[in-house]
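Box 3.1. Reading complex inputs
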Amino acid sequence: EVQMLESGGGLVQPGGSLRLSCAASGFTFYAYALTWVRQAPGKGLEWVSSFSGSGGTTYYADSVKGRFTISRDISKNTLYLQMSSLRGEDTAVYYCAKTTSISVRRPFDYWGQGTLVTVSS
Amino acid sequence: EIVLTQSPGTLSLSPGERATLSCRASQSVTSSYLAWYQQKPGQAPRLLIYDASSRATGIPDRFSGSGSGTDFTLTISSLEPEDFAVYYCQQYGSSFTFGQGTKLEIK
């Protein structure tokens, strides 16, 4: 059974940093692209960042480029999102999701339950 | 960036009725790389349809997708009580964008 479990969310001040983790199980971790998607309170879904299964390429939304870094640890089957220079508009539930193939250009078939990040003073 | 516009914003129907949800793209979606997701309150989204018309694993056949280019449709042939939720379309052919969602509510 595929499972994705996010952690690391919490309250952080504007300008601060936070690292999210996503522990994955039930599939061959390095064979699939992985993604972070966020959802601001009461709003729709916004793609944040993706990591190709081959490990060679990362992708970022313009809204987070230069501030967020996606990475993975194959030995721990864990995906990370390092977030810095956080702003109020980064407040959201952050979901990690598995893509259906090694390529990022595919839909997201398994999602975690999300972790809430609140940026406020 | 491809902008996806979903209509209607809210759809009020009764169980047993047919639901038709629309997703229009600001430019043609590469290779019909268009997906539909269902999200219930407090839950993560669930993949329903990918590549415009292919049902994801375990999705009932009352859900169907169609369309190409810039116009796509999700149809639920006969609504079940558990189908009332928010539905999002997403394109993954040119970066990734989501529509703003359609709320399907019980009439």
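In summary: Chain A touches chain B at residues 35, 37, 44-47, 50, 59, 61, 95, 100, 104-109, 111-114 (CB under 8 Å).
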